[in-house]
Design brief:
The chain is of the alpha+beta class. It has two domains: 2-32 and 226-256; 41-189, no CATH class. 22% of the residues lie in helices and 31% in strands. It has two helices and twelve strands, in the order αββββββββββββα. The protein has helices at residues 2-31, 229-256, and strands at 41-52, 55-58, 65-69, 72-84, 91-92, 98-108, 116-117, 124-125, 132-138, 157-169, 175-179, 186-189. Strands 5, 6, 7, 8, 10, 11 and 12 form a seven-stranded antiparallel beta sheet that branches. Strands 1-4-9 form a three-stranded antiparallel beta sheet, with no helix packed on it. Strands 2-3 form a two-stranded antiparallel sheet. A hairpin with a 7-residue loop joins strand 6 and strand 7 (116-117). The radius of gyration is 31 Å and the shape is elongated.
């Protein structure tokens, strides 16, 4: 009976080891084909007044202080792009690449066919532990002069679009992974004067749907108490081993219990 129990134990251990390898390999294979959902986002345009104080000098004839340049109000303008975060937990693939969720942004005037793209590579990474990923764009003509920014004529409308990436960038900034496709544009109006602010609706509808069930089937997006699938599989296997160990122990006790003559 002891030999039978030993053989049974070895068989159970082998089955569990093979099962764990199959589960982990299956999860890795599914993660490789994960495609992000097209993101929801909003565009917000704000104007910040800045008071520039007067410049003082000395009147040569009287020796008294005098204003040589009057104070005035200047303005800084900023566009806020606010992206609704998708459920996602970054992870490493079987080759050790750090798989992350990125966002790309582009903009143009409706009358222009040429889009201008976010220069950052890797692209904007989703902000962890937050409901939104927010980035800002300043105008070149702001009081605080900048060399790069939005160059939009006053009174012009500008369209913004966002798309999501899941994957990684190589050392030479080449992306490997899956892309959601661009969401329908949100627009802002560059104010002709500084008395208005536009706040577009923060929700939008996809312009294309590359995977009809990408949100539901996003393997890495699904989490249980902030655990990914590999961690869940390990926990379940641990419970299974514990239960089988108890069953085996009870079976041994029953087999060694003396029978009544």
């Amino acid at each position: 009976m002891v030999n039978v129990n030993k053989a049974f134990s070895i068989c159970i251990i082998a089955i569990l080891a093979i099962s764990s390898l199959i589960i982990i390999k299956s999860v890795s294979a599914q993660v490789d084909v994960t495609t992000p959902s097209t993101p929801n986002f909003g565009v917000r345009y704000e104007i910040f007044p800045i008071y520039v104080p007067p410049v003082y000098g000395v009147d040569a004839s009287t020796g008294k202080a005098m204003i040589t340049k009057e104070g005035y109000t200047a303005f800084d303008e900023t566009v806020f792009v606010e992206i609704v975060n998708q459920p996602f937990v970054s992870y490493k693939d079987s080759n050790g690449n750090n798989i992350q969720l990125f966002y790309n942004i582009r903009w143009k005037e409706p009358s222009n066919n040429s889009w201008i793209y976010l220069d950052e590579k890797p692209q904007l990474t989703q902000t962890p532990n937050s409901e939104q990923t927010i980035t800002t764009f300043d105008f070149i003509g702001n009081y605080h002069r900048i060399s790069e920014g939005l160059d939009i004529p006053i009174g012009s409308e500008t369209d913004f679009q966002v798309e999501a990436y899941i994957g990684y960038y190589t050392t030479d900034n080449v992306f490997t992974g899956k892309i959601s496709g661009w969401i329908d544009p949100q627009s802002i109006m560059h104010a002709a004067n500084y008395s208005t602010t536009t706040n577009p609706n923060a929700s939008s509808t996809p312009s294309q749907n590359p995977t009809t069930e990408s949100h539901q089937q996003n393997i890495q997006s699904v989490s249980l108490f902030d655990l990914n699938w590999e961690q869940i599989a390990i926990i379940l296997l641990s419970f299974t081993v514990a239960i089988l160990a108890v069953v085996l122990m009870l079976s041994r006790r029953k087999s060694t219990k003396p029978s009544n003559a």
